[in-house]
Design a protein that fits this description.
mainly alpha, Cytochrome Bc1 Complex, Chain D, domain 2, 2 helices, binds protoporphyrin IX containing FE
Length: 57
């Protein structure tokens, strides 16, 4: 599984689609829509982006 800190920034534009709507199920990424609401997924996204920013320092 990829280290999401290195994920292409454009991919964060479709983060909700990937995590909650199954956009990447064909790649093996499960649809987590029944476990995470939109706000929770967004919190995870912001957390990953903060960790990504730390890498850039
Ligand atoms: C809160 C939990 C998770 C989040 C936020 C998350 C998020 C993501 C994102 C954003 C991508 C796209 C990465 C990219 O294009 O660089 C991705 C890909 C993927 N995820 Fe998840 N994921 C989660 C949990 C899981 C779990 C539990 C599995 C497996 C059981 C999984 C398997 C994969 C796979 C196989 C890919 C595609 C291949 C790859 O990019 O390495 N993910 N995930």
């Amino acid at each position: 599984m990829a280290d999401l800190r290195y994920t292409d920034p454009a991919t964060y534009n479709i983060f909700q689609n990937i995590v909650r709507e199954g956009a990447y199920t064909g790649l093996g990424m499960p649809n987590l829509g029944q476990y995470l609401n939109e706000a929770e997924a967004d919190s995870i996204k912001q957390f990953i982006l903060s960790k990504r920013a730390e890498l850039m320092k």
